[in-house]
Amino acid sequence: MTPSNTAPAPSSDEVVIEARNLSKVYRDFWGRDKKAALKPLNLAVKRGEIFGLLGPNGSGKTTTLKLLLGLIFPTSGEAFVFGRPATDVAKNERIGYLPEESYLYKFLDAEETLDFYGRLFGMPPEERARRAAALIEMVGLGRDRKRQLREYSKGMTRRIGIAQALINDPELVLLDEPTSGLDPIGTREVKDLIIDLKRRGKTVVMCSHLLADVEDVCDRIAVLHQGELKELGRVEDLLRVTGVTQFQARDLAPEAYDAVRKVLAEHGASDVEIGHPRTTLEDLFLDVVRDTEARPGRRAQAAATPAKPTGA
Amino acid sequence: MVLEEEIPKFAAWFGPAVLTFLLTAGLVILFVGLAAWVVQAVRDGPLAAGDRVYRGVLTGLQDLAGTSPRRVWALARLAIKEALRRNVLVVLGVFGLVILFAGWFLDPATVDPGRLYLGFILAATSFLVCTVTLVLAVFSLPADIKSKAIQTVTTKPVRTGEIVLGRFLGFAVVGTVLLAIMGLAGWGFVVRSVQHGHEIASLDVREVRDEEGGLTGFEGRTGPGRGHRHFLRLDADGNGIAETFHGHRHPVTARSQDGQLVFEVGPPAGILEARRPLRGTLRFLDREGRPAAKGISVGAEWAYRQYIEGGTAAAAIWTFEGVGEDEFPDGLPLEMTVRVFRTYKGTITEGIHGTVQLRNPSTQLRSEAFPIVAREFTIDELWIPRQLNTVLADGGVRKADLYADFVSDGRVEVWLQCLEPAQYYGVAQADFYLRAGDGSFAVNYAKSCLGAWFAMLIVTAMGVMFSTFLSAPVALVSSLAVLLIGQFREFIARLFTSQVTGDASIAPGGGPIESLYRIVTQTSITLELDPTPAVQAMKLVDTVLLAPMRLAAGLFPSLASLGTGEFVAGGFDIPGDLLAAHAAETLAYVAAFCIGGAFCLRAREVAS
């Protein structure tokens, strides 16, 4: 079961983000067209949903996010966030943004970083301190709060980047490759966080080329390729394979397989496959780590100890 | 000190200055708006361009109106932290080294050590602080844009104006702290450097006796100290002064030791002062005693000082206003600097003799003549007492009162004449003044540091503005270019006027092309070029080239004009009107640069 299945459906039809024929062409110094990063794009994101922008490198995902944030200006078309033009600074009061590489000030430590961004929202000192402490704990940087970011690993930088994106408890969170640089545990935590944000009624727009991440958390996705929107819809609908039916059962004895095949054949089914489903590598890894943390050494001992001969 | 232009009253200066500022700002905005429209129109058509420019200006103004001091301060704190973590305080070590080397290499035996030390310290302080803040300012924002850290800031509810203002404020705070520390250290260095004393050996002092053989005093010389000695003039008790030399004097006191007088020389006086002058207006009489617009020019040189011929009726006349008993109850402390132009050498170790007289501007009553001896490069003091003599038409002398007989409605004239034929006195309006009082030297020094502070603020704001749309090295070079042009703005203005009017005497040598031609052909700048068609064409091109330079020079700041070190070094109190004008000018430049920077940053994409 994917985590998204446990999250409630979008709670509102209110459109939070809207792109109307939004396009971006990068130009050279002389104003000549250099690269069409985004061809006219039309999409709308509703309040409370997790929306994924999916596509290979250079497909226009980040460009779309930057246009929505007003970091770059559209060549044509318009973008609206909370009904305001994307270039309107006031919209940023309700937005959290995690850039692709957690571009932060390396000479600040974690606390100073969150304090700085909190000040930009005009948060009172007590609230800043409280929120910063909570976020630092949430992203697991409690022991490293006083270290300058220049000393952080990529994963740690990503975590503090996520914390700064949430400092203002935003209604809309825009995440650019949120799991980039994170280990599987961090990846899972971020995905859980995204789902938790949705649970709290937040809208999340994330872009990623990691298909599993998008599939795990997103309600709807837009697939971009070469700057063009290729697919747009609910994940379930897009991934549903029509004409194929899947059954799952726990503790079914192998002896029952033939009976099942027989019943299916009677109903005209073809290409029947029966077997054990595979878990994902991510789930296996997380199981190993959690188990090892709960009972240190057990798996290692089990692997290292040769099997005793039976019946000796 | 040289004061080429009269310092206007701030209240009178402010109105026209604001009008000029608004007019200039309006023209610049119009020009920039037009340029932006043209660029946009080429890409998107005239209507879309007009719409974009209009919306850009409108939202830009809305953003400026929504500026939050909290966010500005948050960004300023960030800039301060950035500066500190870039080890900006190292510059204090550099300043320490500068002082160390200055102590070794500055010559304390110079004619005016106070001026030398003060000039050096103020220049070094200003240079270091301005350089540091300029470098911080031009490198900070481009570094943020390059590292993309700016993206996490601009996606918060932060206006571009707040980013620009925050940077400026942060680096200005850093510069202010550096300036305060350097200023204090410099103050200690200067005061310590000019302090000195002299020994007086009994062999160097001789008794002065009257005709009856009675002791009337002592005269002689002090021992050497800081490369100079003073002449002594002491009373019969052995008290008096070591006369002014190298811009200072020393009090001398005597005490009896083993039945003998032992002289003690006090600390230097007349150095590191802050005189408050009451200045008058200057006019001239020619050699026949007729009013003249100017004095005599003694050659093709700087026309600041005009000369009067000795042994003739030529005179330089200052009219002082606002002279009253309340300000000067005991008499008039007249101080003067008189330059000398000799047509024959004479006794070179002696000054040129002349006289100073008072005259009532209403009754024309003249006082007796006070003899003076003009020496180069010193400020001579003349005390005009309350009771003085006046010469009657019959040659008789009668007693007169300064205020009753010579001051009329607070006005009094001071006449200077040179007595020696074929020698000349050179004077400017600022050379004669009544010493209306003294300010604190420490406060005056602080005021001078304020000049460096103004310069630092302008440089920082300019650096931040350029960094909003240029890469760091280009922003640095651009800032330096603007400052360089600003330094020469008066010359460029003169050059342009000379070019337009064809009056080569204003700025000989011509514009850039003509200058190049003269260099290549080794033609002196004083030689008129034949008005051939080629020369005419050259001059025309020069005028075209000079026009934008003249415009730029009028807009760009001149840091030199904000400097008030000359006042402090010359021992004059910096007038409040001048400081207020400098503060207003600084505010105008800072506001213009910050608003310009905000619009530039807003108009660009901070991500790519």
Please give the structural blueprint.
The complex is a heterodimer of chains A (312) and B (608).
Chain A lengths: L14 E13 L5 E14 L3 E5 L6 H9 L6 E6 L2 E2 L9 E4 L11 H11 L4 H14 L15 H12 L6 E5 L7 H16 L3 E6 L2 H7 L2 E6 L2 E7 H5 L16 H11 L14 H14 L3 H7 L8
Parallel strand pairs in A: 3-8, 3-9, 6-7, 7-8
Antiparallel strand pairs in A: 1-2, 1-4, 4-5, 9-10
Chain B lengths: L9 H35 L1 H20 L3 H17 L4 H16 L7 H35 L2 H5 L5 H35 L10 E5 L5 E7 L9 E5 L4 E6 L2 E10 L2 E6 L9 E5 L1 E5 L5 E2 L13 E4 L5 E6 L10 E6 L2 E4 L9 E8 L10 E5 L5 E6 L1 E5 L5 E5 H5 L5 E7 L4 E5 L4 E7 L2 H27 L4 H16 L1 H13 L10 H10 L11 H23 L3 H4 L2 H6 L5 H28 L5
Antiparallel strand pairs in B: 1-2, 2-3, 3-4, 4-5, 5-6, 7-21, 8-9, 8-11, 10-20, 11-19, 12-16, 12-21, 13-20, 14-15, 14-19, 17-18
Describe this structure in words.
The complex is a heterodimer of chains A (312) and B (608). Chain A has 312 residues and is of the alpha/beta class. Chain A has helices at residues 61-69, 110-120, 125-138, 154-165, 184-199, 211-217, 235-239, 256-266, 281-294, 298-304; strands at 15-27, 33-46, 50-54, 76-81, 84-85, 95-98, 172-176, 203-208, 220-225, 228-234. Chain A has two domains: 13-239, P-loop containing nucleotide triphosphate hydrolases (Rossmann fold, 3-Layer(aba) Sandwich); 247-300, no CATH class. Chain A has ten helices and ten strands. Chain A has a six-stranded mixed β-sheet, with helices on both faces. A four-stranded antiparallel β-sheet of chain A has the order 2-1-4-5, with helices on one face. In chain A, β7, α5 (184-199) and β8 form a beta-alpha-beta unit. In chain A, α2 (110-120) packs across α3. Mean pLDDT of chain A is 85; it is low at 1-10 and 301-312. Chain B has 608 residues and is an alpha+beta fold. Chain B has four domains: 1-60; 66-194 and 440-603, no CATH class; 202-265; 277-438, Jelly Rolls. Helix content of chain B is 49%, strand content 20%. In chain B, the strands form five sheets. Chain B has a six-stranded antiparallel β-sheet, with no helix packed on it. In chain B, strands 9-8-11-19-14-15 form a six-stranded antiparallel β-sheet, with no helix packed on it.
